[in-house]
Amino acid sequence: MAINEDHSWKFAQCFGDKGDSDDITEADIISTVEFDQTGDYLATGDKGGRVVLFERNDSKKGVEYRFHTEFQSHEAEFDYLKSLEIEEKINKIKWCKRQNSAHFLLSANDKTIKLWKVFEKSLKVVAENNLGDGPLAPSAGLRIPKLAHHDTIIAAVPRRVYANAHTYHINSISINSDSETYISADDLRINLWNLDISDQSFNIVDIKPANMEELTEVITAAEFHPHQCNTFMYSSSKGTIKLCDMREAALCDQYAKVMEAPEDPANRSFFSEIIQSVSDIKFSQDGRYILSRDYLTLKIWDINMDNQPVQTINIHDELRSKLCDLYENDCIFDKFECVFSGDGSNMMTGSYSNNLHIYNRDTLAETVLSADKSIFKSKKLGSAKNKLGLSRGPGRSGMSTMDDIDFNKKILHSSWHPRENTIAVAATNNLFIFT
């Protein structure tokens, strides 16, 4: 299943093309992308609180996804106690393992998590009436109305709402390998839930100081181990990753294994703390390795070795000298996600100018894909071949100078098919699929 060394990725599909960028509203911007465990379904959530599902449909042309259903998951709310507006934006979607013909998935905004059931529903209509020869006719036997199948629709209903457990913004949800429990993380706490119980959760990590003026770090991401149901990890804005065992104590972080990369004194600057904040962490499917992303680098960790990462890849080293400008335009706070391929042989993360970087684990050879509508249009004209997959040597960054970079276009969210080399990428309001 390893990617060919010629890195022959090809553009497959683009959803949500609206033409000019002037038509795009804030609500249309995709805020999360997630394949299910089979790869046959794909979900996106957007800033308008909508969840859109796509279903795989293999045609003669190859792998294709088609629209399956769409539903409004969250609405904007107002917290009167804090005088805060709670956005409807979907932060995360996680699919539950499929048990029957219905799909179950969790979706979260800043404050509330919902469990949705998505299923096929048969619509029936009355096909035969019982009025017959008139209700008073002596010959008229009583006829029961007959229902006939009229149409099949895809219905989505919220089965559980897990609310009031987070004071701060929820940044992660992760379903346990036991398929019974999940964790949700905000800036300072991680809660453990049972999927069947919506009014009770257990606080398993709490880094809130007694005096908020002493606050030095926040939790940025959390994820369960893919096979060990007692193990999970979380990352912080201080650049650390903590591996926790729920069997150790009620509050797990006291005995956590801490992974932290030693900082190079030569690179120390005013911005060091900001750029070392880990924006995303992922386990490999076998649970042996951890992939972490901070502003400038992608790191691979072996869970048995906590003193330093196994590999560090500089994604855009040329930005290191421009951190002051990036601080002023707020780009330095962008949170890029990262992901392993299903077999763990490749890693992927996003960047600016709608570029996507794919790295081979062994050779560190880099492939840069561009999820840009101009390429999507030029493909129709048959001129996209050269632009699509730029292959580079080990660790060479895909960007040359600051002037070439479009900071308004950024790939923050992406997902890799669990069993094959198909990736889904969110670029503003568009969903790109490459195979």
Describe this protein's structure:
One of its GO terms (molecular function) is protein phosphatase regulator activity. InterPro entries: PP2A_PR55, PP2A_PR55_CS, WD40/YVTN_repeat-like_dom_sf, WD40_repeat_dom_sf, WD40_rpt. This protein has 435 residues and is mainly β. The protein has a domain at 41-132 and 145-351: Methylamine Dehydrogenase, Chain H, CATH 2.130.10.10. 5% of the residues lie in helices and 42% in strands. The chain has 4 helices and 31 strands.
Residues in helices, as a percent range: under 10%
Taking pLDDT < 50 over at least 5 consecutive residues as the criterion, the unreliable ranges are 1-6, 380-389, 395-399
How much β-strand is present in the residues? 35-45%
Radius of gyration: 24 Å
Number of strands: 31
CATH topology (level 3) name of the domain at 41-132 and 145-351: Methylamine Dehydrogenase, Chain H
The largest beta-sheet arranges its strands as 24-25-26-27-28
Mean pLDDT: 87
Q: Please report the first level of CATH classification, the CATH class of the domain at 41-132 and 145-351.
A: Mainly Beta
**Mind telling me the CATH superfamily name of the domain at 41-132 and 145-351?**
YVTN repeat-like/Quinoprotein amine dehydrogenase
Please identify, by name, the CATH architecture of the domain at 41-132 and 145-351: 7 Propeller
Please work out how many helical segments DSSP would assign.
Answer: 4
> How many angstroms separate the termini?
12 Å
Shape: globular
